[in-house]
Amino acid sequence: MNALRFVGTRLTSMVFVLLAVSLLTYAIFVLLPADPAQLACGRPCTPERLETARAFMGLDQNFLVQWWNFVTGIFTGRTFGSAGAEITCPAPCLGYSFVLRQPVTDLIVGRLPVTFSIALGAAVLWLLAGVAAGVVAAVRRGTTVDRAIMVTAITGVSAPSYLVGLLGILLFGFTLDMVPVNGYVPFTTSPVDWAWHLVLPWCVLAFLSAAIYARLTRAQMLDALGSEYVRTARAKGITERRVVTRHALRNVMVPVVTLFGLDLGVLLGGTVITEKVFSMAGLGALLLDAVGNTDVPLLVGVTFFSAALIVVANLLVDVVYGVMDPRVRA
Amino acid sequence: MTRNTTRRRSVGAVSAAAALALVLTACGANDKDDSATGSPAAAQQGGTLHILTSAPSINWDPATSQNLAITTLGLVERRLTAWQTNSDGSTEVVPDLATDTGTASDDGKTWTYTLKDGVAFEDGTPITSQDVKYSVERSFAPELTGGLSYHKSLLTGGDDYAGPYDGKTLDSIETPDDKTIVFHLDSAYGDWPWIVSMPAFGAVPEDKDDVSTYTTTPVATGPYKVADTQEGTSVTLERNDAWDQSTDEARTAGPDSVVFELGQDESVVAQRLIADAGDDQNAFGATFVPAAQLAQVQNDANAKERLVTSGPGALAYLAINTEAEGLDDVKVREALQYAVDKQAFQVASGGAIAGDLATMLITPGIPGREEYDLYPAEPSGDPDKAKDLLADAGWKDRPLRLVVPDDAPTRAKAEAIEQGLKRAGLTVKIVTQPAEVWTQTVTQGDGSKYDLTLSSWQPDFPSANGNIQPLFASSQIGDGGYNLSRYSNADVDALIEQATQETDTDAAAALWAQADRAIGLDAPVVPLIYTKNSFLHGSKVQNFEIPDFPAYPNYLKVSLAP
After folding, report:
1. Among A82, A67, A68, which residue's Cα sits nearest to residue A296?
2. Which of B15, B61, B145, B155 to mutate against chain A (most A CBs within 10 Å)?
3. Taking each helix axis from N to C terminus, what angle separates A2-31 and A63-76, rounded to the nearest 10 degrees?
4. Is position B154 within any domain?
5. CATH code: domain of residue B337
6. Lowest mean pLDDT segment, chosen from A221-230, B43-52, B255-264
7. A55, A73, A191, B380 - which has most CB atoms within 10 Å?
8. B404, B431 contact by CB (below 8 A)
9. Residue B157 pLDDT more than 90?
10. Pair A25, A147 in one domain
11. What are the pLDDT digits (tens) for B406-458?
12. Do A182 and B61 touch (CB under 8 A)?
């Protein structure tokens, strides 16, 4: 019962957070002096035509009305334009991109496979690599191995992803010719090509993020290895390997999973730079193009979706937390 | 009554404000045939051409597109007229769906076209004049704004027309029979043959029109049809069997299919084309080669052979707000002509490969252009002469606000201007704004928020009209117009009107040259450089050429080596 109430409360607060996010996003773009209708006006642009474009895009309305239309559109769908030439955006409608002339929901759904492919692959890779490196570094504390891992980690944390991506393409793509330079192949077209094209972006993203996990795991692991229960376990004669993997690591994983859930949520909202460098049309690339085009409906829609992912990730982390750490459930 | 087979003028102009240039431009001048003889020499057939572009999508809807006639949309959608790019670098307007480039009557206010026999939609249905009329009409619909809109103010009744979707038709377009279409204009317009080369003057079958899907699934009239679209990733074109080469003198349709790779990073595109491996041998980049890769190509003999740099194209200029305090004095504006360091500006733009120094307004490649320099000085300017002029004018030093879009290349150029003016004792305050905000500051409102700005301009079609009218007619001040100098001179306006209405090509060209000089004497802008665009292509790409105008390759004639 407690668990149900816990989830219920979280769900309610989720709805309010999302409403606030959408309102805030709208407000920010209304406060900007740029006029999205300018780009939809054509050339040459007369004041009458600008007004027509503004009315069609719904920009002539108060921004609270625009926002309310957005919220209700999620449940009921929306229609733009006059009869005979109307454009429909079926529910759940997250807005309509007048630049790309497609419903935002369709655009997001179309790009999810790309972003998910990049994010999930990279996440698995960095979690494994980061945790493994952290454990090794902790167990071999003070040795050359430890120092080498930590120096690599600091490099990864500090390196700009744009640079690492381009260097990766230059080295492994052009010079060594080991992997494809860029582009995305759908999993359904060819699973092998799909993975082959994704190897480099996975590695680049993992290199950048694994560092944080390695450092976190190392610190937590050192803490755990020095604790009373580990000493007890050792005293009972359990092998060191078992002490590390069964006893210490399980506790170390609690903060790691918290961080992982949030990072993954953020990443699923779009890996902007990585997608751009590797010319992969995911959510991040979509968001970047929306910014470049002052495509407000698309910006609001994608931002809203990303926020929803993070909120959901938060919820999942809390639930998993309970599974991993019985004390939370109590 | 004038036949306009060799006419080359027009009215549009493209601001260089970055986004516009994106997908649409490219012209290749490669074939050696005389355009009057009909079909061009057969190009090598076969292969898959890859076009690498940074654009995230292709908008195929002719009503909302700003494509130049020789780029993307031209592969799929024909118009009444097309652009022929010749080996001598010239670009001329030639018949496309129509049998000629237009017959003027009623002193240039009425233009009549006859459709060719044998032109059809991809399903084999013959194209009728009603299909063309419908295509033009739908461009007036509020649901379909955003395209090239020159015709909307020219056609009689256009200002009050809101498209065909509520059942109304535009009466100034007549279709007396299936082959004939007649346009009635408010006033004579000599460049009309260029206007009907714009996307909206194609053909759209009413029964296949859906405003929400036409942008991705157009009905083809050209040599290719859209076969597959992977949103954000690629668009694949395949041959349209209903297209007949013998009716088309502007397209060679060499490749069997064309694949647009979308959303590509410019640097990576350039690297791929330099490496020239696999499919990339059959590819070209639709985006300019970035400065870093331009430098790299200079040291790579193989890649250098595949780099094509246009001739001098768009005019980059410093606009002086002629309504601003002090700048309303022509002596002060003359002083600015001498104070600016054009050489430094050229260096900031990327050096000699980025453009040639400019002295006048009409851009190279435009018929009737006469070259002259009203304010002769060293490339780095003449600060002493500027100081004298400023002293004569009694200039009271005040900081000049140079408002520019906020990106690194533009900031570098703005600093080059600032340094130059400083030598003559002028103080410049650089104000950067996000691109869209900058557009509004300089094209909307009363213009009180800037003294100087940097811009560049390439006409939407190759006529001096396209250079002069949008930038210097007093009707183009504010309200979205590109008269950034807010320049108003009744004599010049009269000259522009006279030249616009002139249907004789040579007479019109002479009038435009006269207007150019008259404006130059008022010094509302400082011409800086004529910018050059560089493109890379793979080793199997043939007939990849760039005419004098526009500074883009002609997609319609590119072919592939076997």
Report:
1. A67
2. B145
3. 140
4. no
5. 3.10.105.10
6. A221-230
7. A73
8. yes
9. yes
10. no
11. 888 899 999 999 999 999 999 999 999 888 788 888 988 888 999 999 999 98
12. no
